[in-house]
Amino acid sequence: MDQVSGTNFYIYQDKDDFSFGIDAVLLSDFAKAKKNHIDLCTGNGIVALRLAYLYKDASIVGADIDHKAIELFNKSISMNKLDERVTAMEMDIREVEKHFKKNAFDSLSVNPPYLNPKDNIASGDYKRQELLLNLDVIARAASYLLKPYSKIYMIHRPARLVDIILNFKNHGINLRRLRAVKPFAEKKANMILLELEKSEKLGFDYMNELVVYKADGTYTEEVKEIYNGAQ
Q1: pLDDT in tens, 134-144
Q2: Alpha carbon 41 to chain centroid distance?
Q3: What are the DSSP calls for 7-56, one per residue?
Q4: Is 139 exposed, middle or buried (0-12, 13-18, 19+ CB in 10 A)?
Q5: Residue 152's CB: how many other CB atoms inside 10 A?
Q6: Structure pTM?
Q7: Closest C-alpha among 2, 5, 55 to residue 227
Q8: Structure confidence at residue 19 (pLDDT)
């Protein structure tokens, strides 16, 4: 059991399987949860739990196909006494219509598998590689779940940016804001934070880049604030 960064919540994790990393923390800081929010690929619920702490008026669903992760998420919900406004759901995102009505949510976050099997990267892990779901599946699910003009918040890899834009555009969703995340100031970005909108409006804002580490290897002030500022 570990503390959820920047909150007074605790989370159950299986550290031999999959523990949350900085990508989940950055996404939960970047996202804005509206009245009814859904977090796809929620895993053990780290993004959903941080959003529940930051947005106390929001009702949040965290959905994932991983039975074990959802069991841990449910334990975390109970321990933090969040049963009335946070729900863990074991669900195949490819079958989202079986679980929710169309336009049921006001906002959505997702930390999806980053790796494309076509790139011949031998991961074999569906949490990291697009073996069970890909960008098209996520975009279709988001289009179904969200009300018009609602926002999607995602973290991904820079190399997949064109894939993301094209797949989401095919489902009536367009990029509105983009923020590059760099490990060090002099390095290239290795992550991107995206805000997309379910609308036909074109054009997006390129935000200031986020640098994670100072030259001495410690977190920059902005990242320290992201980790600790929610309290």
Answers
A1: 999 999 999 99
A2: 7
A3: SS-EE--BTTTB---HHHHHHHHH----SEEEEES-TTTHHHHHHHHH-T
A4: buried
A5: 25
A6: 0.91
A7: 5
A8: 61
Tokens of residue 28, six digits: 């939960």
CB 143 within 8 A of CB 172: yes
CA distance 128 to 206: 26
The alpha carbon dihedral of 195, 210, 157, 3 has a sign of: negative
Confidence at residue 2, expressed as pLDDT on a 0 to 100 scale: 87
DSSP SS3 for 167: helix
- Are 17 and 24 spatial neighbours (Cβ–Cβ below 8 Å)? no
In the three-class reduction of DSSP (H, G, I as helix; E, B as strand; rest coil), residue 187 is classed as coil
Name the nearest CA neighbour of 134 among 103, 106, 160: 160
Q: How far apart are CA 230 and CA 7, in angstroms?
A: 6
201 φ, ψ (degrees, to nearest 5): -65, 135
What φ, ψ does residue 76 adopt, rounded to 5°?
-65, -40
What DSSP state is assigned to residue 158? G
Three-state SS sequence of 100-148: CCCCCEEEEEECCCCECHHHCCCCCCCCCECCCCCHHHHHHHHHHHEEE
In the block, tokens 């902005």 appear at 222
Angle between helices 22-30 and 221-228 (to 10 degrees): 80
User: Given a cut of 70, is residue 198 above it in pLDDT?
Assistant: yes
C-alpha triplet 57, 172, 145: angle, nearest 5°: 35
